[in-house]
Amino acid sequence: MDPADLIGLLIPATYLVMLAIEKWRPARAFPERRGWTWIGIGFLLLIGIVSGVVPLAVPTDWLAAHRLMDGTGLGIIGGTVVGYIVLSAVMYAYHRTVHAVPALWRLTHQIHHSPQRVDMSGSVLFHPVEMVIQVLMQLFVTLIVLGLDPIAAALTGYVAAFYGMFQHWNVNTPQWLGVLIQRPEAHCEHHRKGVHANNYGDLPIWDILLGTFRNPKTFSGECGFESPVDRQLGAMLAMKDVNEPVYGPASAGVQH
């Protein structure tokens, strides 16, 4: 098996370990949801399928041959560090955009903010369209822009996946960690009911520089959308705006 494929398998393995720890000692008592764990497993599998299929439909060899930069000289470690820093900046810009533009919020991102829980299952709850966009952004940064070594590109993807899972992990973390990585407590603020704003970056540096950084010591509020629209997965997959009639502009992705 190709080393890059082995790195890809680390993502579901990491997810399952973090899920087990979260089940063992959950930090925050969110509303229960029947079948929620299996919904998460299902979306994790869907992400795996999308991540495997999209690169097959993209001329990756041609793109690598026409890269803007040759980042292979950075090596594996250097390429991974540079790759993730650049990718995190691109993802910050993308994340703010899907919150700021109501049509994009409805079409791609509202489903991720719908659960009244911030946990491992929610970390993988994305619309398939957004899954494709995220894979394409990763390919664009690692192959076209930076031209990284394939292993460094794969590790960049793993780091991005880990950061995404970590910030949803239902565990307690120390406040000082929030300047290095977005903590679950901070990401709960991002998912706070009626707000859905701030803390857009996996790397806090982008939020710190751009004035959207929030790093509470603890979190005790409510997250997600109002019931019953928080569970209308079918409608959200069909790209219908399930939120606007319930509690107004905040549900349409308006920033505060």
Automatic annotation (TrEMBL):
A GO term from the CC aspect: membrane
Record's keyword terms, sorted: Membrane, Transmembrane, Transmembrane helix
Fatty acid hydroxylase domain residues: 81-212
A GO molecular-function descriptor: oxidoreductase activity
Subcellular location: Membrane
GO biological process, one term: lipid biosynthetic process
Predominant localisation class: membrane
Keyword Transmembrane among record annotations: yes
Transmembrane segments: 6-24, 36-58, 73-94, 139-166
Claim: Membrane is one of the keywords in the record: yes
Protein name: Sterol desaturase family protein
Biological source species: Piscinibacter terrae
